[in-house]
């Protein structure tokens, strides 16, 4: 695998025009690039961490939430997926799942190395899916791994794996999700996909309203377990129906084995937004 070393975080303001141009030029492919993006000496800005924690519902702390390094890796993910040899256009891809494994707590005063690559292109019932794998290392030892699974719609040939309609559970909490949460999360994450920012831009992509970021819903769900999480765990989610903003959503969780399972539902209709689990390592 070829390694592309970066000495600073890629500029998202220059990558979004590349993503738009790629949506006009790219139509698909059968192979993923064999390139890994690497950036050493990554440090956390305390003010940025505090802003992220506030938007996502975490307490202010010098221990990083397990979802926070995803924000550090996001510019490298964007750089990878806007390269000329990446087969799919970034716009229109659907983030269908995310799995984060934290081997120990990560602290604000640490310096990290980030590695990002794409792998495992495979069929899906609605098209093709693949993983973007991000790793965070300390002294060359992986301490955190993020696997984001993306779907490119069209020409699906995989077997259907739907688990069927569930019964809406009794909620542990009701989330009142404000209409501006997409813009607020975009400010701290850098993810300014137009489907999250405003009803007008979301409608241009076929949504009736702006939708919440999937990684915001995951982070807000993980915040519900704060104070009960072990130092090492895996938190795995599948994104279902989008959260149309503003929203009223029902969150429920229960103990399961060495951890918990959780779900987020539309509070007015029996439609799931997210299902996930937290498992201790």
Automatic annotation (TrEMBL):
Annotated spans, Disordered: 153-172
Domain MaoC-like as annotated: residue spans: 183-259
InterPro entries noted in UniProt: HotDog_dom_sf, MaoC-like_dom
Family: Belongs to the enoyl-CoA hydratase/isomerase family.
Name of the protein this chain belongs to: MaoC-like domain-containing protein
Record lineage: Bacteria, Bacillati, Actinomycetota, Actinomycetes, Pseudonocardiales
